Amino acid sequence: MSGMDRQARRDAVARYNAEGVAGLYDRPLPGGPGWLGDGEQATLKALILAGPDPRRHMAARRLERQARSAPDSLAGSKLPPAGQR
User: Fold this and answer.
1) Cα distance between residue 37 and residue 76, in whole Å
2) Most buried one in 3, 15, 41, 51, CB count within 10 A?
3) Whole-prediction pTM value?
4) How far does Cα 6 stand from its chain's mean position?
5) Which pLDDT does position 76 carry in this prediction?
6) Of 24, 21, 18, 27, which Cα lies nearest the Cα of 4?
7) Of 44, 23, 48, 25, which Cα lies nearest the Cα of 35?
8) CA 3/CA 1 separation, integer angstroms
9) What confidence tens digit (pLDDT) does each residue in 11-46 have?
10) What is the pLDDT of residue 28?
11) What distance lies between CA 43 and its chain's CA centroid?
């Protein structure tokens, strides 16, 4: 438990003594429910992981052009032709 504040360590030890290992897990934070439901969170996660659509977002097109024009030693791997992703 190095790197912990003395009070946080004391609280953790007290919770461990009272509840065992289960007392060390994070507890739900106070406050109201989240803004997004489970389905909306899954949709948002999928959109973020998919990344920007180069046909719609100028920055993505610019980055794609830069990646294609970079030397192979810098690019790491070649991008597939546009439209084949």
Assistant:
1) 38
2) 15
3) 0.35
4) 30
5) 54
6) 24
7) 44
8) 6
9) 999 999 999 999 888 888 788 888 888 999 999 999
10) 80
11) 14
**CA-only gyration radius of the chain, Å:** 23
Collapsed DSSP state (helix, strand, coil) of residue 31: coil
With CA atoms as reference, report the closest residue to 55 among 79, 26, 31, 84. 84
d(CA 10, CA 68): 55
| Cα–Cα distance for residue pair 23/57, rounded to 1 Å | 47
Question: What are 50's two structure tokens?
Answer: 């998919």
Q: Which two tokens stand for residue 26?
A: 């994070």
* H/E run at residue 11: helix 6-19
Per the prediction, the chain carries an average pLDDT of 79
CA angle, corner 54, sides to 51 and 56, nearest 5? 100
Smallest CA-to-CA distance from 61 within 82, 77, 41 is with 82
Tokens 């998919």 belong to which residue? 50
